[in-house]
Amino acid sequence: MSASIELPVLKPKDFASDQEVRWCPRCGDYSILAQVKKVLPTLGIPKENFAFISGIGCSSRFPYYMNTYGMHSIHGRAPAVATGLKVTRPELQVWVITGDGDSLSIGGNHFMHMIRRNVDLKVILFNNQIYGLTKGQYSPTSPEGKKTKSTPYGSVDAPLTPISVALGARASFVARSVDVDIKHLCMVLERAAHHKGTAIVEVYQDCNVFNTGAFEFASKKDQKQENCIYLEHGKPLIFGKDKNKGIRLNHLNQPEVVELGKGIEEDDLLFHDEKADDPSLAFLLSQMRYPDSPEPMGVFRAVERPTYDELVNEQVREVTEKQGRGDLEKLFHSGDTWVVE
Predict the structure, then answer these.
(1) Does residue 302 contact residue 195 with C-beta atoms inside 8 Å?
(2) What is the CATH number of the domain that holds 134?
(3) 73 and 197: one domain?
(4) What distances in angstroms separate CA 157 from CA 3, 107, 214, 332, one per listed residue?
(5) In this predicted model, what pLDDT tens digit does every residue of 121-134 receive, in sequence order?
(6) Do the beta carbons of residue 159 and residue 177 sit within 8 Å?
(7) Cα 82 to Cα 96: distance, rounded to the nearest angstrom
(8) Rounded to 5 degrees, what angle do the CA atoms 134, 182, 215 make?
(9) Could you read off the pLDDT of 243-301 as tens digits, one per residue?
(10) What is the phi/psi pair of residue 153, to 5°?
């Protein structure tokens, strides 16, 4: 009987690389990096079994600052690179680091198909509602009317909601947090790390230079209780400093804010069900946006379904058992071939 191998006890500092972290002062990226370093040692995974893949943008410098395997890949193509890695090395826990511009503009196609396939990847989407690296142009998540270097008279585009996009592709895990809400962000990242399948975590992240203060409604202690609803599975949607407000569905099945008491009890409110097979209610919550309504934070959906990487590898095993290992040389010379003179 072989003795079990005892893994070394890891600490956050074990995941810090020797590279100087170079983001702008007070950038929200620093907080996200710190929370990821806190979460990884708690997962019981050997350090050599982590990999971080990024695209292009401020957030995509992330792999340089992690003492793990990783790749700073191509603009918008991190999901494709990460999918290839996860399929061929299923024992790795692969994280995708991306931004609102990287994932939802040039990378929108890859983002959508990664989600619908349910590849076992952990995705952190840094959303600062601006192009920071290229110095302040509007992004796919910038609000209407946003004045930037590329929209000096205000953006006329309707912004995308990353959570809604993910749920529309039937994501198996979707969550949202804020860069400076350390305890909440750690909880969400840990939930994502333990999820089997594509886990999307949108993080509201302040760009101190080009879009500062965009998320004060959700980050300021004296504001967030009135402006945010913290989702908990099986519990009613209650918010407010005095926990005296809630969300119920009206006769049109649309969410509305109500005040508890005065004939309205907790049982009248909408109860959160992150495990519902039908993502309709989660999508409804994703459409609640400040300042028109309080904005949900936490896990919107967490369901189990087969992962792409497992299905591909199972198919390869079954075919290999039936037909034996392939011969690449024979494949090259099979079927119709021709010679260019």
Answers:
(1) yes
(2) 3.40.50.970
(3) yes
(4) 61, 18, 18, 48
(5) 999 999 999 999 99
(6) no
(7) 7
(8) 45
(9) 999 999 998 889 999 999 988 999 999 999 999 999 999 999 999 999 999 999 999 99
(10) -110, 10
